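Notes to self after the Tuesday call (sharing in case useful).
The group wants a holo model before anyone commits to mutagenesis around the pocket. I volunteered. Ligand is adenosine monophosphate. Logging inputs and output together so the record is complete.
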Amino acid sequence: MTVHFPFQNTYTALPDGFFARVSPTPVVAPRLIKLNRPLAVRLGLDPDLLETPEGAEILAGKCLPDGAEPIAMAYAGHQFGYFVPQLGDGRAILLGEVIDLDGVRRDIQLKGSGPTPFSRRGDGRAALGPVLREYIVSEAMAALGIPTTRSLAATITGESVMRETVLPGAVLTRVASSHIRVGTFQYFAARGDTEGVRRLADHAIARHYPDVATAEHPYHALLEGVIARQAELVARWLLVGFIHGVMNTDNTSISGETIDYGPCAFLDHYDPAAVFSSIDEQGRYAYANQPRIALWNLTRLAECLLPLFSDDKDKAIEQAQAILGEFPSKFTAAYQTGLRAKIGLLTARDGDETLVQDLLDAMAKNQADFTLTFRRLADAAADETHDDVRAQFIDPSAYDEWAARWRQRLGDEPQTPAERARKMRSVNPAFIPRNHRIEAVIQAAVGRNDYAPFEELIAVLAKPYEDQVAFADYANPPAPDQRVLQTFCGT
Ligand code: AMP
Ligand code: MG
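Result:
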């Protein structure tokens, strides 16, 4: 039997300028490293067939499944604030779209499958390490409940790629509710192609914001929708200590999913100024800067949409500014609600914001681990004598002072301590993809061809909110000599 992909493609029906038709470049010896079987089933694919040699050949881009219409999408983008009028899928090829079991249209894309007309000076390939990192982190984000692209499979190609050293080549099969980015709009806007912007906006509305199609001003409503989802998304990132690392406009999805896991990282100790990416020398994409950058990126999207808003440019700008003005309050609402839930408050009172901020300030001053502090706080909520959380603070008295105020505030809340602790554990993960764990997994795979640590890490991260006692060590921050100080995009 051959592997069947139930493709129902729509992007290829857009005009020629939206993409280039290009097939993956065959590789010598594809081998499947990991198939995400539950995700395959959700996509209407047969996981057993995908695990056959033929399946591996498809997932590594050696052969095409029936019905695939492989394309590289065109886009532009601001990279670190500088506009590049043509980027595009330089090493990714969209095979096609399927409708999943929830009725949602999903792109199936190969990343690292060979050069395209958009490759510029790149080789179109991906190295094994970054493919494993994207697999781990995207699946961890999904398990945390954060909108994200998914990883269907990782294959090795049997070929080498040249980076700073020679590395094994790999292909990631990425699944997204679409790959339309802010940069996709910029591609057409930069060419003065208003009709292209309109076609893309109509496609994005039909696909991601069907409710706005009947709004009085659908294009305004599209911008509102993207702003709402991005505000929520970035709040969710901050609430789990995620740093995207390269929030360029070409890495900002119109659907509101986290996309493009390059030099991303998670906080260990809480530090709002944390930057891990080796290429982010100015700290543009630092942890606490992410909301500001999201708004900057959305402002670039709004600029693209201006010609669709009104023929009167001043009026269009005024309308865009009014919509963009909603971002701070939307972000703050999502972030503050999330923070309140993290400390066990289900109602909102005056002073809550200060209470949480004082905890964060004490955590920063005392290098408290972001994830463990909140997880242990749930234990402290269940049982007052439980004071493991103190140990997260260099000076535990900083916690004691705060905890006295916290307990007083909890007195106003309706739930029992047990209920409160359960709710807190459902929003404060025990397990996040810690940077040192990812590094260890990559070293084992690349250096020793040992994928057992990769499998184990994925299994632990699939249930981030459960105390998996057998894997308790995965919850721990790195020892001083294990700390990862820098991450690399590895392209
Ligand atoms: P990224 O930093 O991964 O978001 O990529 C930025 C741009 O560089 C996109 O247009 C990518 O397609 C392109 N790119 C990254 N790595 C490669 C590569 N190895 N070969 C060709 N293009 C690449
Ligand atoms: Mg990108």
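Two things stood out.
Residues 250-251, 260 surround magnesium ion (ligand 2) (CB under 6 Å).
Residues 183-335 form one domain.
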